[in-house]
Amino acid sequence: MKIYVDKIPEGGLELSEKIQPEAFLINMEGISFIKPINVKADVSKIGAEIFVDVVLETHVEYTCGRCLSKFEDIFRKKFNMAQEVRPAEVVELDDEIRQEIILDCPVKIICKAECKGLCPNCGQNLNTGECGCEHNGPIENRPLH
Fold it and tell me: In angstroms, rounded to a whole number, what is the distance separating the alpha carbons of residues 144 and 6?
């Protein structure tokens, strides 16, 4: 998303754009962006500085780190930035948007707090049923051998 400084009117400017996730080169394990990222930016200029309020929204598919089930959610992020500018400068927001997305993505993805995960012996998803293994149940409740 580009902001043309000399085209910002006195009352500010509202920009809106749909950006394909591939444009940001975000490759995070367990996270897939399944729709374009809607970006809205409110831009104002005071003196030699611009102020930008950005809202990002898209649909994401996550893969649970315990049971490997896939689930969808809506990713929303709001952030602000201020930057000193020169007349006729073009400010590119893509790097800031990319960094904010990466910072807001979960490090450990879990489908639900009580997720039981997979049986380490047979691979049965313990959220959907018990397995026939001797020590079934969540990993943290199993005795050590």
Answer: 67
Q: At residue 141, does pLDDT exceed 60?
A: no
E-strand stretches of 47-118: 49-63, 70-84, 90-92
Task: Please report the sign of the dihedral spanned by the C-alpha atoms of residue 129, residue 70, residue 103, residue 15.
Answer: negative
Return the amino acid letter for 99: Q
Residue 83 near residue 96, CB atoms below 8 Å: no
pTM of the entire predicted model: 0.75
74-82 long-range Cβ contacts below 8 angstroms, 24+ apart = 75/33, 75/101, 75/104, 75/105, 77/101, 77/104, 78/53, 78/54, 79/54, 80/51, 80/52, 80/53, 80/54, 81/51, 81/52, 81/54, 82/49, 82/50, 82/51, 82/52
Nearest C-alpha neighbor of 94 from the set 144, 27, 29, 39? 39
Both tokens of 13, joined, read 């400017």
Residue 42 has pLDDT above 80, yes or no: yes
The HSE-up count of residue 98 (CA atoms within 13 Å, CB side) is: 14
HSE toward the beta carbon, residue 73, CA cutoff 13 A: 16
